[in-house]
Design a protein that fits this description.
The chain is mainly α. It contains 3 helices and no strands.
């Protein structure tokens, strides 16, 4: 496994979200707004299209295909990071 796929934390997921926001794929307030691991996709204002962008970027970054049900709008960032780490381990 490369360093890109190891040790996904909430902070790493947030950095991906901030990058997508800078590219206008997620809401602009995510660029510099406070985001914690307990924030949910929905409360951050990310809709299903934004979720698709997030999944695509995570797939590109990790090289791991995400299942269709990987992301739920009620998921918090901590849960996304945990699920991502588990998925990477199982794809190992």
């Amino acid at each position: 496994m490369t360093s890109e796929t190891e040790n996904w934390t909430a902070d790493r997921v947030v950095e991906v979200m901030r990058t997508l926001a800078k590219e206008d794929d997620l809401p602009a307030h995510l660029i510099s707004g406070e985001i914690t691991g307990k924030d949910t996709v929905e409360t951050l204002g990310i809709d299903s299209l934004g979720g698709a962008y997030l999944i695509e970027r995570l797939e590109d970054t990790t090289g791991v295909q995400m299942p269709d049900d990987f992301l739920d709008l009620t998921d918090d960032i901590d849960k996304i990071a945990l699920r991502l780490n588990n998925l990477i381990k199982s794809a190992g």
